[in-house]
Each structure stands twice: as C-alpha cells, then as structure tokens.
C-alpha cells in the first residue's frame, strides 16, 4: 500500500495537511503566527489589549471590533444533548487535519464559480430551530439582517486525533458575507488575523484579535479581510 493510500485509510489528510493519526511524532504547527495582540470581550463587545478580561468601564487601549457578535448560552444543555444525538445519527466523513465532517449543501466549484445542486434537497430538520433562533436574535439587533443559510457543516475536533484547522480565508462568492458558528461539547478560541498586505490603513492593534467562544455559544462573523 502506498503512503498516500495508507494515509487515506487512516485519516483525511492530503498534501501538507497532517494530524496525530498519520504523523504522530511531528508538531502540528503550520506557520509561526505572532501572539495575539488584543482580545474581544463578548460581555461588553469591546477589544482590549492583552489577555481576556472585561474592565466594565472605559480603559486605555480599548476599541471596537466591528463585524462580530457573540451570544452566550445560545442553546441549553438539553438542546445541546439533543442536537448531538441528532447529528450522530448520520455518518461522519474523514476530513483534513484530523477532523471529521458532515456536509449539507450543493456541490461547489469555487475556482470556476459553479454550483451543482445534485441530490441536495435541503438542510437537516434539526437545524430549523437554530435558524429560527438566529433570526429571533437578529430582530433585536439594528445591524444584523435576516439570515438564510445555504449550507450546514458539522465539524468534529478531537484532541486525541490532533484535529485542527489551518489559518484560511473563507470564500464569500456563494456563502455570502456572514459565517455563523455554534460551539458544542466544549469551549474554543477563534483567532482573527490580517493578511500580510502591507496596508497602512489598518492600525497595528487590529493585526491579531482573539475571541473566546464558550460551550453552547453562537458567534456571527462578517466576512471581510479577516
């Protein structure tokens, strides 16, 4: 069996991607990213230089990070358990970098910007109450517009497999200008970085921002240059 075939049978890694299953003795670092400069606080919706904390009053170095909205406890523990049960009733597929995934949506060729509906008939029924709740929260916000999903992707990040996702830019051509994420099973951290464009229009403190996302929390992100 070739090395490529052996890797495919164990995990979904291809090319330079890796995980603890196919390369257990190699570090899972892809590039030397600088440490985060600022932290987004979901309690007051402001960013602070340094580690995660909410000052509760004006402080030196705070600034607004537009285009991100976090809703803590978006689902209850009972709803989370029900969702996980519904999700696990469908098969998982091996994916890159130690992940497993479930994709619901049309087939897409991003290079040629073509959509092939194929056998796609819609999103799973368990997602309906999530979409309804997202739009309920939007109605109370003057800056968020009605959310109509065109794809649902369930991603499993298992520490034992060294599951991760490399720094990347999400395509805006088909999926639109917003990405909604719901964190289940555990808390997580999202890191927003700017590409090395050499732009002088962006202040230095915006170059790297950390956002802590608690278990059962929902985050909506506008897709811009991040």
Automatic annotation (TrEMBL):
Q: Which InterPro entries match?
A: AlkB-like_sf (IPR037151), ALKBH4 (IPR032857)
Domain of life, source organism: Eukaryota
What is the protein's name according to its record? Answer: Alpha-ketoglutarate-dependent dioxygenase AlkB-like domain-containing protein
What is the species listed in this Swiss-Prot or TrEMBL entry?
Answer: Opisthorchis felineus
GO MF: demethylase activity; oxidoreductase activity
| Gene Ontology biological process terms from the UniProt entry | demethylation
Co-factor requirement: Fe(2+)
């Amino acid at each position: 069996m070739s090395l490529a075939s052996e890797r495919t049978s164990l995990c979904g890694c291809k090319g330079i991607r890796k995980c603890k299953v196919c390369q257990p003795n190699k570090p899972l670092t892809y590039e030397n990213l600088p440490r985060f400069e600022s932290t987004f606080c979901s309690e007051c919706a402001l960013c602070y230089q340094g580690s995660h904390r909410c000052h509760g009053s004006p402080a030196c170095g705070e600034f607004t990070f537009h285009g991100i909205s976090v809703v803590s406890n978006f689902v209850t523990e009972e709803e989370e358990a029900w969702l996980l049960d519904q999700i696990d009733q469908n098969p998982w597929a091996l994916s890159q970098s130690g992940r497993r995934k479930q994709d619901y949506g049309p087939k897409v060729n991003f290079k040629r910007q073509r959509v092939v509906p194929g056998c796609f008939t819609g999103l799973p029924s368990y997602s309906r109450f999530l979409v309804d709740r997202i739009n309920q929260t939007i109605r109370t916000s003057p800056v968020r517009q009605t959310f109509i999903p065109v794809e649902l992707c369930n991603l499993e990040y298992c520490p034992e497999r060294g599951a991760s996702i490399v720094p990347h830019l999400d395509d805006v051509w088909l999926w639109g200008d917003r990405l909604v994420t719901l964190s289940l099973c555990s808390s997580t951290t999202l890191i927003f970085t700017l590409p090395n464009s050499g732009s002088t229009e962006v202040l230095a403190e915006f170059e790297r921002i950390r956002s802590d996302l608690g278990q059962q929390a929902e985050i909506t992100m506008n897709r811009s240059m991040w």
